[in-house]
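User: Show me sequence and structure for the first protein, then do the same for the second.

Assistant: Starting with the first protein.
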Amino acid sequence: MFYWIMKHIVVGPLLLSIFRPWVVGLERVPKEGPVILASNHLSFIDSIFLPLIVDRPVVFLAKSEYFTGKGLKGWATRMFFQAAGQLPIDRSGGKASEASLNTGLRVLGEGRILGIYPEGTRSPDGKLYRGRTGVARMVLEAGVPVVPVAMIGTAEIMPIGTRLPKVRRVGIVFGEPLDFSRFHGMEGDRFVLRSVTDELVYDLRALSEQEYVDVYASTLREQRAAQTPSR
């Protein structure tokens, strides 16, 4: 109920009237049943506008740190992510990654929409980066359709490191659903996982028209951080 009120009465109408998003292909999102929306990731606000546009609730898996902050800021952050329909997960790797996978599968098992970012993190420079194969494993284990989604212009509205967005139009393009049923039962094959991931990212590249870089975005972030002199 809280999610519905925030989306349809409080926050949603205000954001839609200010940013006036343009949308292509929304009819490609199934009206019922489990589905994965796999999107490029340019800005923090991607997780806001995508759920606003889709009629059904969209669940994202968010860092658990967003739900454990202290004080007024921590409370406000927690309430915001709850209002956006996001679930806390531990992204530290190992067993935590397995728990994240199981959480996503549970959401899909309930017949809901799961939003994921194949790149694993926001693009540091607006380019499209190599996808993480954990996404493919979830796709194959769930056996559900995948709709690629391109977010357009969100990096210009709210770049990494900024707190307040600029008022510009947002674009959201939904591609044709992808069917990976031909790989059923092969989620343990790393070559299959890479093939599925690359096919998905290829579609995102075509929809978004971003320049593609065949490295992980997180690797680039780490390299840049290492090169930045400490003060």
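Switching to the second protein now.
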Amino acid sequence: MRISELSRRSGVSIPTIKYYLRDGLLPAGRPTAANQAEYDEDHVRRLRLIRSLIGVRGLSVSATRDVLAAVDEQQGDVHLLLGLVLGALPVERSGRPPRRDGAAEPAGAGAAAGDAAQDVAALTAEMGWKTSPNPPAAQVVAETLETMRALGVDYDWRSLVPYAELADRAARLDLDQLRDAGDPLQQAERAVLLTVLLEPALLALRRLAQEHHSALRFGNG
């Protein structure tokens, strides 16, 4: 296809496509004349993933380039690919994902040390979840528990088990929706959209449900 068709199919403007080509985010097309080239479905899928990483997930062009370099090396490992595009795994400046043997602890991993970090380890063990060493999400949970305790709220990992069970069901639902996307790049794009775009809606649904059940329990009709 010509670049105009590539723009229409991907939803990315022609000037932006040319910028991505110059900056190395998008591989060059097949030359057909001095200033013309043809593009294929791989370019469409790549552009849609770039658009998701920059426009939806909010990554910079530089960070997107690093993620794409890692994605190019890991297309045979869908699990690792999803971790890279969703930010569950950090990406080194070389474009490679970090080692997964857990031998070296990343900088800042001890920030949420202590009882809260032990609680998160106990929670993931209780749920039987297999995660990478020191995932960013685990640190968020640990820091939240530390803050709650500092404010005098008696909350530990056992209190989070019912919420973890709901999260487990939601995660299964998320991944079920990737089955129709057979290509790894399509799966990666859809995973970004489902995760980033749906999170505010999921929080809003929780608020609506809270209002409903509050009205049932405490309302006056």
